[in-house]
Fold these 4 entries.
Entry 1:
Amino acid sequence: MLKYYENQTEVDYLIYDRGFYDRLALSTADYERGSLEEPFKNEFVGNLEGKLATVDVPLLLLVDPETSLARKEIQIREGLHEYFTTNIPLPKDIGWLQHLYDVYSSLKEKYHGIHIIDSKKTKEEVHQEVVNILNL
């Protein structure tokens, strides 16, 4: 989420991780695998859709399942991230990860204005693309 405050001499931004669009994608995926009932999903999605106008510039960083798993394995091996050094197993079902990727990708079709960024690129390339989108 991006917010600009006009009364200040500097531009302030808020980048919000795992916001409304994330919940939309995950509720769709949960419904499709049978872990969320349709009436609840529809009400939940309706409530979220009412909040989307509060997001000035939605950015969706997508990475394919193979790259995602490879990065997790590196983080575990190198001890770079505590979350991955616990006993939480890596997902074995690449099909489920591909489904999530597809669900997230489809958000752009339903909700206009989303900027999809290919996060298979380097951190520097992704950063530059964000800077370009935000005109910084």
Note: Strands lie at 59-62, 115-118.
Entry 2:
Amino acid sequence: MTNGQAKRARAAARGKKFEEDFRNSFLGLTDIVCERLNDQEGHRRGVNAPCDFILFEHPVLAYCELKSTRQARLELARISDNQWSGLISRSRIPGVVAGVLIEFRSSDEFPEVRFFPIHFLEVWKAGGHKSIGLKEGTSVPLSGWKRRTRWRYDIQPWMERIRDYACSVDRAGEDEDIH
């Protein structure tokens, strides 16, 4: 295994841990549904699923693609064309929120996790931006805490902010700042 292959394997393993920690944070929550969609591991450009997770808490349906980066920025090219189109088409349905949940691990001890709505990212990308930073644009932060070696996320308040965002977009037809 070359050095580059080893780096990619470690990054993929960290991304899978982020997905597992996110999914496990829903355990015991009875009013929120969290469904993991299957993806073809190692075939980033050939992924058929539009996202990693579908979440439901009445009255909102959310589609979430999870990404993890060691940088303070995520390259938008890491979101496949299929994921862009799938998330954008779903986000146009009233009551549906779609976007990318990014784990910024620039600080290994305390990573920051933020949800960026896809239509914000679409406008951002159309403006010529190639990446999105931790503190840029419209996002919904997801707080969490470390339990020994794994993270738990505070899902209920985050889903409330997602629901508030969905209702504001449905009413206004445009993004509102939801920091």
Note: The chain has a mean pLDDT of 86.
Entry 3:
Amino acid sequence: MPISDIDSGRAEKYTVQKKILLWTILAAFVLVPFLLFEEEFARIAQRTLEASRGNVHLSALVLFLLLASDILLPVPSCIASTACGSILGAPYGFLVSFAAMTASSAIGYALGRLSSGFARSLAGESLARAESAGKRMGPVFLLLMRPVPVLAESSVIYAGICRYSIVSSALWIVIGNAAVSAFYAIAGSFAAVFGGV
């Protein structure tokens, strides 16, 4: 076997290892807090919401902060978004959920953008290939991932790492956030009216 084939095989193995490490770090960033603290965080969120239930503006603030921190903390976002509709009503619940989800997405994109140098040093050429593939597909994947827990957050961070266009990414994220927020706010409002929530 020629030496160049051996060197090529080692380089390919090294690239695969770097890619696995990058995805492991990204997944750990999103999953570890969720797995370790979800129950405790859900209890704290529930107590806080119960304490603020009599004051609609305080409830809106609490729900906004919960959803906006979803990129960093293990917030059960579908429950919080449904609570927006249940507690605040569909229109106001939609606005709070939408604004918070969009703030969370902006934080995630910025974190990805700020860590892109580190990610490039880990993944190197494989990140460049992923960026190239992503540019061919476009950031429409951001829209498709919005309703999927964990992948919604990971995809936004990934878009920042790959330095996808801020305007294009924001457009797809905003459309996805509007659809998800509307769905959950309406569902929460119906549950409050018909289910006695």
Note: The two ends are 71 Å apart (CA to CA).
Entry 4:
Amino acid sequence: MHNFLLIERNFVKRQSILWLAVIFVLSLLPTIYAQVPGVVSVIGEVKAIDGTANQMVVRADSGVLFNVTLSDKTQYLRVAPGETSLAKATKITLADVGAGDRVLARGRGSAEQKTVPALQVVVMSKADLAKKQEQERAEWRRRGVSGIVASLNPSTQEITVSSRTMAGAPQKGNDEALSSRHDPQVQRSQAE
């Protein structure tokens, strides 16, 4: 009986070590595949465009400035804010890109050199982004509630918010405006 327990304990140890090794190797895979040699992507805001020199300066989201070199082979695509694929992208030209636009520039090069010879530039225009942000603000004003959380009821999934007018008086309103039901299914379907 003692040998059986010892064998079983060793088996469990070996199996645990094996699973830990498998998990470690699997956790490295995204890092390995994300680093395709020679491919550089820069996401940021266009700061300047020099059409005669076929270059644009892009401030990456990290704050670093990149020189994006353009050629006749560079493909320019415009996507609407919020789109997650290039299926609905429209082809544009360099003349359609302006300062303040958000871009994703992809090409072969080195991020250390801060130069990207772009094969593709995906653009979200500054005007389209401003329009989308204004729509989101209007939607928030229409549907949003601001105030202090007065109570939470996990069993009914309700959140009650206490709000006041600009003069400081308690906000008068219907219970639906000041009490909100949290429905995870609705949030998931809206996110998709």
Note: Residues 67 and 151 are 52 Å apart (CA to CA).
